[in-house]
Amino acid sequence: MKRLEMLRHITRLHILAICAFFLFLLGAIYIYSGHFWALERFCPTLVINPPPQVIDTSSTWKIGDLTMQPGLKYAQPSTQKGRTDVNAVTNWNVPLVWEGTFDPAVIDAIYKKMDPRVAVVVFAVGKYTRFLKGFLESGEKHFLVGFRVNYYIFTDNEKDIPKIELGEGRKIVPVSVPSANRWQDVVLGRMKWATITIDNQIRNEADYLFMMDIDSVFRNRFGAESLSRLSAVLHRGYYKTTRDNFPYERRPKSMAYIPHGEGDYYYTAAVWGGYLEDMYRLVRYCYEQSEVDAKNNIEAVWQEESHLNKYLLYNKPTKVLSPEYLWSDYDQIPQDIKVIRISQLVKNYAEVRPNGGN
């Protein structure tokens, strides 16, 4: 009897050992694979609340090595000479781009070798279709010339999209959107419709995306120096002022709220760009935050621009573009602006806006 009991005891030990080994094996599978499928299949009671799947949406396309073909002739860069009248780097150590801080031939040669696809999203709703011809024709002369570009024209009147002669690898893509009764609704609607269209279409057709205002024209080169993971443009009206003078949203009730004493720069929402997936996150953020504000019966002081500045304060852009990248025909040109790359047009807001500019 004692021998039988001993055999039973040994058998139980063997079973426990086998179970322990089996559990160890499953644990190893879990650790090295990063998935829950094995545990869920064989020991479902051990996996009660698995964490949500984490998907890397940083980008399906990233800047590669900064290489270029041999034989390109250009001026040797200097370690001692450069712009001394402006700051060319932020305090988080990314470029602040001005004329004279880059060599167009070098940077275009590098990026053209990568051959990125660039999407430009503009909204031409109501009477704003009148600005399409000037924007598109000037874009073909100055915007990322030699690169693949799709102009996504969001409009409530596709028949008003002009016929423009486009360069090789460039095309116009109409996107229908509803009309609006207030210009503020057009501004806020941009984030909603851009989010939906990136999800449904643009994600499969672009590596970079720029959001731009249609009531502007390109005056000079707007090239590959503007490309980065997330590029923001300094607002021409506030790039020389202190942060407490920025028109941030100062009401704590709004999701765009930024308290006094905080802030780097004030960025315009008329031009911004970056990797497709990084731009998608930012566009969707502005849309969702605006929706929260609407439920709380508040509208940020400068609509999506307020939410854009809130996001970029805590999620720093990887390149800051000087006001060269969006000036205005309303304003005189100061000495530190050596070239105007794109400029907003003078117009009668009361005439072109659906609610008379109010």
Describe this structure in words.
- The protein is an alpha/beta fold and 358 residues long.
- It folds into 2 domains: 1-47; 92-352, Spore Coat Polysaccharide Biosynthesis Protein SpsA, Chain A, CATH 3.90.550.
- The protein has helices at 2-33, 37-42, 104-114, 132-142, 183-200, 276-295, 303-314, 349-352, and strands spanning 96-97, 117-124, 148-155, 170-176, 208-212, 216-218, 230-234, 267-275, 319-321, 327-328, 342-344.
- The strands form 2 sheets. An 8-stranded mixed sheet has the order 1-9-7-8-5-2-3-4. The protein has a 3-stranded mixed sheet with strand order 6-11-10.
- Strand 2 (117-124), helix 4 and strand 3 (148-155) form a beta-alpha-beta unit.
- Mean pLDDT is 85; it is low at 28-59.
Helical content band: 25-40%
**Unreliable runs, pLDDT <50, ≥5 residues?**
28-59
Indicate the overall shape. Answer: globular
**Number of DSSP helical runs:** 8
Percentage of residues in DSSP E strands: 15-25%
Classified by CATH, the class of the largest domain is: Alpha Beta
Termini distance? 98 Å
CATH domain fold name of the largest domain: Spore Coat Polysaccharide Biosynthesis Protein SpsA, Chain A
CATH architecture of the largest domain: Alpha-Beta Complex
Radius of gyration: 27 Å
- By helix and strand content, what is the structural category? alpha/beta
Number of domains: 2
Main location: membrane
GO molecular function, one term: metal ion binding
Keywords: Glycosyltransferase, Manganese, Membrane, Metal-binding, Signal-anchor, Transferase, Transmembrane, Transmembrane helix
Binding site for an alpha-L-fucosyl-(1->2)-beta-D-galactosyl derivative: 235, 305
